[in-house]
Each structure stands twice: as structure tokens, then as C-alpha cells.
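We emphasize that the prediction below concerns an isolated chain of 109 residues; any contacts that depend on oligomerization or on bound cofactors are therefore not represented. The input was used exactly as deposited, without trimming of termini.
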Amino acid sequence: MALHPGTSLRGGGAIVARHALLHAALGFLALEPRAPELQLLHRCFDTWRGVGEVAWGWSARAIGCTLTNIEVGTWRATFLRDAMAAAEGFAAAPTPWAAVQVAARQALA
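Result of the prediction step, given as a C-alpha cell string:
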């Protein structure tokens, strides 16, 4: 499957291609899921598996993810390259997947 000429999910362009797919998915997840395609995307990513997929996508870029349940109904996600440096992305939300998605989008900026 080619994303654009010269980039594929196999070989040397794999990390670049995966980052592009992650970037696109996170952008679409920020939209309200009114269209059937967006509802499908949310069904895939608004789960524990979706949390893992986003975290795995960032780990390929040497950026780690921490997820903490602060209290009932509040989750905190942090994306960082170095534990002693400022976070690349940070968010708190009522669900773990919302916190991870928002923090991951911030890390893209």
C-alpha cells in the first residue's frame, strides 16, 4: 500500500509512513464523529487497543507515553522524549483514549 509516490509501509519509508498515518488519524479523531467513517475510526481508537496503537506509534519516534488514572473519571496522558525534560504533549480527560489522543496531537505541534 503506497501513501504517495516513493513511500510505502515496508522498507525504509515505514516509520515516515506510519507517522503520516498516525498524524492523519489523530486529526480526524479531533472531529465530531457524525459521518459513518468517523464513527468507525472512533470505534477503533476509543478503546484500550487504540491507546496502545497511539503509544506504539510514538515509541517508533523515541517518544514515550505515560498514562495515569488521577481519580475516578480523570486520566492524564503525557508524551515525552526525556523524563527530565518538558513534555512534548500533555492532556487530562475523562477517558484514557481521549487523554492520549489530545496529548498525542499536542506532541505533533
